[in-house]
Amino acid sequence: MAVNFILLFVTAMVAGGLAYFIPRWEERYFKLVLVFAGSYLFAITVLHILPELFVESGDSTKMGLFILLGFLLQQILALLSTGVEHGHIHHPNHQHTGVQVGVWTIMIGLFMHAFLEGTLLSHDGILVDHHHDGHDPGHHHHHGNNNLLLGILLHKGPEAFALVAVLMSNMRKRLVFALLVIFAFASPLGMVLSNLFYERNVLDRNALNVFYGMVAGGFLHISTTIFFESSPDHRFHLNKVLISILAFGLAITLEMFL
Question: b/e map of 59-74 (b: 16 or more CB within 10 Å)?
């Protein structure tokens, strides 16, 4: 868990630092990175997260409801954050779909999203312990832990970059750096606290499954939004299709064979 904590924090800081120190960058290249990250996130959600949740849950219909609620929750969080987690780079303090959005609104929405996605990394560790203790012998936890971590890291990088690019437009650099540090701690904090609450019996497996299902629904929202918004004109873009295929292929390879 310590390694995951460091990787989550450092990835956000490095990606945010790129936007912090490089004021000029090519938006088209950033969008291609987004397409790869979004495609990879979608692939691991379908290949790894959803199968784990449905097998672990005793009621697949109820788990489907949690996933759906997570999809809707992410829509609300996207209104607060202006879609920064999708890679949207907007000027703060503007009207976004009828909502007055400012810096703190963006931070609240993005922090909540990052905190929730961090809980997924405690999920795999809890599952491993759960199976090693002799529970649920019919289900074999497959080797996708690092695949899930990589997917979250690939998502975390563009997310942090977009956040800093948004904040740099009208804030002092020192304050932007402080907010980046706060954001960088969000996912590690979600991972540590969810694991701690489970170990202290504050949350049981059923309660955690609610969080995991909702995070999975949020990932579906984010990844599909990135994928479809990459071609707003509904035209065929070969480079984006090839990047998506590459991301799918990498996710499949890591999930099935490594």
Answer: eeeebbebbeebbebb
Query: Three-state secondary structure along 217-258?
Result: HHHHHHHHHHHHHCCCCCCCCHHHHHHHHHHHHHHHHHHHCC
What DSSP designation does 202 have?
Answer: S
Give the span between the Cα atoms of 88 and 27, in whole angstroms.
11
Q: What is the pLDDT of residues 203-257, one digit of tens each?
A: 888 888 888 999 999 999 998 888 777 665 656 678 888 999 999 999 999 888 7
| Residue range 38-61, pLDDT digits in tens | 999 999 999 989 998 898 888 889
pTM, entire model: 0.83
Q: How far apart are CA 23 and CA 228, in angstroms?
A: 27
C-alpha torsion sign, points 103, 108, 109, 113: positive
| Residue 99, CB-side half-sphere exposure with 13 Å CA sphere | 17
Nearest to 19 by CA among 168, 228, 171: 168
